[in-house]
């Protein structure tokens, strides 16, 4: 074999080897896997929606992770206080979820399409009835308010006329309600049932009134994934999440509070 033919033969072998190599790479690392990126999500504990001890990390956590996976984003959850998450969102340094949209937050954050809907009701004590025809009946009452939470524009509008007792957690608020330290407490109905079943005795649980009637329903709340307007990647991240959520749920808004 002369040198020219030998060179051509070696070149052919090299090209074939490279084709096989790239085919193997494509098989081992398909484009979707190679494109997967990570996203840190900072949230507070809010069982059963966000539960760091559960295999799926909670109802809403699972939905968020699945929606992001649809667009090749792997979500990693980190537990922080809700107040700390709010501060970091304002600074454009994190992404979070399970937040409601209100007038105060709209200028500061970008909101995704709703992840799901929950119901917030007014909790009272069985031995201290609080007749209610509307939220206005809470005026002048001692009302618990979990730190860093928003209960919607209607409650925010009433806030100045309530005797607010700030609570570090929903569990602490329930204990204050049982002890007579407050007259009422706004809380998600599913969260209240979960806490009472896990952290309180059956007798204590029977003393808390969870009434889903229209008079005691504060709102049906839509929860969103959020990031700060000062985050340059925020708008793009929200768009991608919405695409994944739509692929997962279509146009049906799920009810998480059942």
Descriptive tags:
258 residues; alpha/beta; D-Maltodextrin-Binding Protein, domain 2; 2 domains; two-stranded parallel ribbon; 9 helices
Could you explain how this protein is built, in words?
By secondary structure, this protein is an alpha/beta fold. It folds into two domains: 36-116 and 222-255, D-Maltodextrin-Binding Protein, domain 2 (3-Layer(aba) Sandwich), CATH 3.40.190; 118-219, D-Maltodextrin-Binding Protein, domain 2 (3-Layer(aba) Sandwich). The protein has nine helices and eleven strands. The protein has helices spanning 3-28, 31-35, 59-70, 82-90, 153-158, 170-179, 189-199, 202-207, 234-249, and strands spanning 37-43, 73-79, 95-100, 109-111, 116-125, 142-146, 163-167, 185-188, 208-210, 217-228, 254-255. Strands 3, 4, 5, 8, 9, 10 and 11 form a seven-stranded mixed beta sheet that branches. Strands 1-2 form a two-stranded parallel ribbon. A two-stranded parallel sheet has the order 6-7. α3 (59-70) packs across α9 (234-249). The protein is elongated and about 95 Å long. The termini are far apart. Residues 21-27 and 29-34 have low confidence and may be disordered.
């Amino acid at each position: 074999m002369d040198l020219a033919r030998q060179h051509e033969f070696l070149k052919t072998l090299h090209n074939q080897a490279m084709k096989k190599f790239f085919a193997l790479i494509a098989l081992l690392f398909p484009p979707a896997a190679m494109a997967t990126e990570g996203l840190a999500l900072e949230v507070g504990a809010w069982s059963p929606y966000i539960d760091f001890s559960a295999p799926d990390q909670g109802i809403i956590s699972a939905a968020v992770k699945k929606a992001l996976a649809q667009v090749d984003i792997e979500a990693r959850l980190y537990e922080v206080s809700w107040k700390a998450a709010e501060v970091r969102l304002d600074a454009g340094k994190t992404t979070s979820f399970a937040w409601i949209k209100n007038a105060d937050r709209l200028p500061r954050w970008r909101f995704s399409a709703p992840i799901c809907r929950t119901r917030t009701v007014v909790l009272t004590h069985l031995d201290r009835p609080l007749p209610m025809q509307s939220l206005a009946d809470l005026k002048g009452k001692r009302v618990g308010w979990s730190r860093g939470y928003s209960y919607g524009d209607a409650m925010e509008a009433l806030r100045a006329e309530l005797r607010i007792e700030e609570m570090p957690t929903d569990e602490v608020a329930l204990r204050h309600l049982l002890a007579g330290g407050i007259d009422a407490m706004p809380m998600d109905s599913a969260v209240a049932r979960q806490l009472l079943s896990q952290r309180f005795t059956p007798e204590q649980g029977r003393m808390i009134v969870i009434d889903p009637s229209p008079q005691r329903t504060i709102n049906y709340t839509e929860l969103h994934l959020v990031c700060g307007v000062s985050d340059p990647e925020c708008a793009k991240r929200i768009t991608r999440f919405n695409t994944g959520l739509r692929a997962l749920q279509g146009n049906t808004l799920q009810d998480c509070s059942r």
